[in-house]
Design brief:
Rossmann fold, 2 domains, six-stranded parallel β-sheet, four-stranded parallel β-sheet, 17 helices
Length: 379
């Protein structure tokens, strides 16, 4: 859905997959055919005109040498951009595998003729609960795939309360092309520079009831739990937010937060990357759904901070079951745990910066992550 949602965080996620698969020697193509109209940032609206989207995808594909390896199908009129309709049909007819990244595409007959069809879930919890509730659309979407992978690395374990139902989820995580972020590791960082993150403030429509309780999607609820943090931390904290509510922005600034505009730095991949690389570390929260149900989810954006040699302090979702913590990466549940993490990072920044980079190299390197996933899928 890189074109449907043309923001840098989504783009980096896709680019890492494409380049990582190519580095493993695979013949890789990007096809976007979700049946949904894209968002056009210039018009600030969902639009049936795909001009912005097509130009955006073409520019990103050229950036990594995929000039003739992409296709976008307009939901408005079915017109195909990039590859031709015939070339797409031949791709589907001869492919060994289809990877449905984020589960953005409802598979059709031409997709289902591909022998291995991987559902690659980057946001767990909501789909699993919908299946447990008998949601026919979600069940059929998942059933069309032969293999199921999730960033919820704790799914199916005793530590996790997410219902997994009939689908056997394999754990995976965001692949990162380490070399793309290497320059930041050597870049000097101001000792009083900001801890930052990039986020949407409020997202509605994906809260869900399960077991008599409500589980929430929007991260703003978690940020509000720690809204007094700048006053207590003695550390500059900045939120790059997608938020145009002046009352909210004024409230955050009143509590000591610096606020930047996430949309302006997310319209292209370079400003987004430079923002991460120019940060001292990341401080961020997670979704309530992942926190309370302990899915083990870890952010693809936070993986980029780690690859840049930027320590990460992030809310505990149970990811310590699969990732090393305590140096370069710190999970938290309470305000005191945040403050302790800040103190440890600032007391020996060089050590924690190096540890962050090592975590990325050992646990998020694209070639390693994707080789394991493909092996588990029988490729």
């Amino acid at each position: 859905m890189m074109g449907r949602t043309p923001f840098a965080g989504v783009a980096w996620q896709v680019l890492h997959y494409l380049e990582g698969l190519r580095r493993l020697g695979h013949d890789v193509y990007y096809v976007e055919d979700t049946g949904e109209w894209p968002y056009d940032p210039k018009q600030n609206t969902i639009s049936g005109d795909p001009s912005y989207t097509v130009t955006y995808i073409a520019r990103l594909m050229a950036r990594i040498g995929f000039d003739h390896r992409w296709a976008y199908v307009s939901a408005a009129d079915g017109r195909v951009y990039g590859l031709t309709a015939g070339e797409i049909a031949r791709l589907f007819g001869g492919a060994d595998a289809l990877i449905n990244l984020t589960g953005a595409t409802v598979l059709r007959a031409e997709h289902c003729r591909i022998p291995i069809r991987i559902y690659l879930e980057t946001d767990p919890v909501l789909p699993q609960i919908e299946v447990a509730q008998g949601n026919r659309f979600t069940i059929d979407l998942l059933r069309a795939h032969t293999h199921h992978f999730s960033f919820g690395e704790n799914l199916g374990t005793e530590d996790c309360l997410v219902p997994v139902g009939p689908f056997a989820y394999q754990p995976t995580r965001q692949p990162v092309v380490i070399e793309w972020w290497a320059g930041a590791a050597e870049r000097a960082v101001d000792t009083v520079g900001p801890f930052t993150t990039i986020a949407n403030w409020r997202q509605e429509g994906k809260d869900i009831q399960w077991g008599g309780e409500a589980y929430f999607w929007s991260k703003h609820l978690e940020f509000l739990r720690f809204v007094d943090l700048p006053c207590r931390a003695g550390q500059t904290l900045e939120l790059a937010l997608a938020c145009d509510d002046e009352e909210v922005l004024s409230m955050l600034r009143g509590h000591g937060w610096r606020v930047a505009d996430a949309l302006s730095l997310s319209r292209d991949v370079t400003p987004y990357q430079e923002y991460i690389m120019g940060s001292r570390a990341e401080f961020t929260v997670a979704k309530d759904q992942n926190i309370r149900l302990r899915s083990g989810w870890f952010s693809d954006r936070s993986a980029c901070y780690l690859a840049s040699g930027r320590p990460v302090v992030t809310q505990d979702t149970g990811f310590a079951c699969t990732l090393p913590v305590g140096e370069g990466l710190f999970p938290f549940r309470t305000m005191s745990e945040i403050l302790e993490a800040f103190d440890r990072i600032n007391a020996d920044y060089t050590k924690h910066s190096r540890s962050a980079r090592v975590i990325a190299e050992q646990y998020f390197r694209a070639e390693t992550v994707l080789a394991a996933m493909l092996s588990q899928a029988g490729l």
